[in-house]
Amino acid sequence: MPAIAPLLAAVLFGAATPLSKVLLRTVAPAQLAGLLYLGAAAGLLPVVVWQRRRNRRVGRRGVIRLAGAIAFGGVVGPLLLLLGLQLASATSVSLWLNLELVATAVLGQLFFREHLGRLGWVGVTGAALAGIILAGAEAGSGGIAAVLVTLACVCWGLDNHLTALIDEMSATQATFWKCGVAGTVNLLLGVATQPFAASSAVTAMAVVVGAFSYGASIVLYVSSAQQLGATRAQLLFATAPFFGLALSAGLLPEPVTGAHLVAAALMVASIGVVFAARHAHPHAHAALAHTHLHRHDDGDHTHDPAEAVSLVHAHWHEHGPVAHAHPHWPDLHHRHSH
């Protein structure tokens, strides 16, 4: 499940770039960002209503993290991306989005206690080189577009870590609030700056794209980030641009150049290098209570021995203090330094 979820998220999110390029022909960037996120919130609403009885009061720390995720990942990031998408091809923007991996890794090392290791940094460097290759290959406004997309990736890197640490509500609930608030802000901003001229058909298409490419995709990503850590989940999610590249070539009149293929090959190699690293060492856990996806054969979740160990599920559970050693990722339980 931890590896499959971000790959499914990548397929869904990869389709968003070329589809958004089509929608931008008739919808302003801020308005489209609002419709995409409101579509995501609408798609998640039934699940949130179903989970409402299991909700717990979110503490101040969780509220701050959610607010940061909404501001950076839901409002500023999408707007910067769509502005960049207006200036450059969907093909190049799809691959530039892998700079989110670099931003997530650097921020994780500097501020979020997410250790990456030597091989990890080799892979991150490869991802950065792939982005540089694409920036040089994009003519005209490529430089400005690359800066805008890079800033969007930094915003999403912050969002990735903040969201991965929200453990007082389910991934679906966190995504619903993020998308609902961000979508409302962006749409109001867009309507305030220029008239809303999109047809009902285009509006409906934007909402549907948002429900799948943003709503379902974000939930899958957050669930995996809580188990693998934001950086390693981002490594698998970084395959999204390749799906976007394939769809761009088929849906839009945009050629796939040699630079695109070289960058794609470099990204595949970088992903493989970073994801290969895993480690084990003695470490201690303090008492903790939270909600997230887990299974009972990972060395950290033994609160219900009667539960099938291979069943992946989410519920509020408590941990007593423990010290042990086992192979692990930098998940919610293992954000420690080395």
Reported for the largest beta sheet, the result is: 2 strands, antiparallel
Helix percentage: 55-70%
Beta-sheet strand percentage? Answer: 5-15%
Strand segment count: 4
Strand line-up in the sheet with most strands: 1-4
Distance between the termini: 27 Å
- From the spread of the alpha carbons, the general shape counts as globular
Structural class: mainly alpha
Average of the residue pLDDT scores? 79
* Residue windows where pLDDT falls under 50 for at least 5 positions: 334-338
How many H/I helices?
A: 13
What oligomeric state is this?
single chain
Give the domain tally: 2
Q: What is the string of helix and strand elements?
A: HHHHHHHHHHHHHEEEE
Radius of gyration: 20 Å
Write the SSE topology.
Elements: H1 4-14, H2 16-23, H3 29-50, H4 60-87, H5 90-96, H6 99-111, H7 118-137, H8 142-164, H9 171-193, H10 200-228, H11 230-237, H12 240-251, H13 258-275, E1 279-285, E2 288-294, E3 313-319, E4 322-328
Antiparallel strand pairs: 1-4, 2-3
